[in-house]
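Possible regression after last week's pipeline update?

I re-ran a chain I had predicted before the update to compare outputs. Posting the input and the new output here so someone can diff against the archived version. Not blocking, just want to make sure nothing changed silently.
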Amino acid sequence: MAAVEGAAGAPANVAVRPDAAAKPNRGARKSKADENWRKLRVRQVREATENALDCAVNSYGQVRNFFLRNPCADLDRTLFTLADPAGNTFVVSVSWVRMRSTKDVRPLKRLIDTDGTGSVKSLGFDLLKHQGVRFTGTPFRSRPTGDVLVVAEGAVVSGKPDPALFEQTVDLAAELPR
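New output (post-update):
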């Protein structure tokens, strides 16, 4: 690939793919997540990440219908399994939904923030459901940023995590970089 002078702030001798800005920076995300979990004194037990192109297949309810009418550009999902100091475990699902147009982000946020309308499935949704892990919408947070809607939600795996800690964990996860 030919070098692109000044593209994305790169020096003239560095090759830059035209879609480089659209790709997730998982290294930055991992560093920020590790920092966040340390602040909250929770331990990351496991992390799984996946990139998908079809949001309709990876969603349910009215949210799925929204994606059938307004396809996303891509979907990046991460599932963190975390343990608090008392040994309670929970998962935090984070989805970065990149829409084809910024005008689609606000209506998607309004829909996803409304109880009972569906959502983007967490990574491993069906397996977690089979194991009795349920995403109930609490704690939940969505955050628009340009053409991306970040959706974060938590579910208890075992024990009874402190509700304030659980909420803080989801809030910090919603702030993770794409």
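Follow-up from reviewer: compared with the archived run. The chain has a mean pLDDT of 85. Marking as no regression found.
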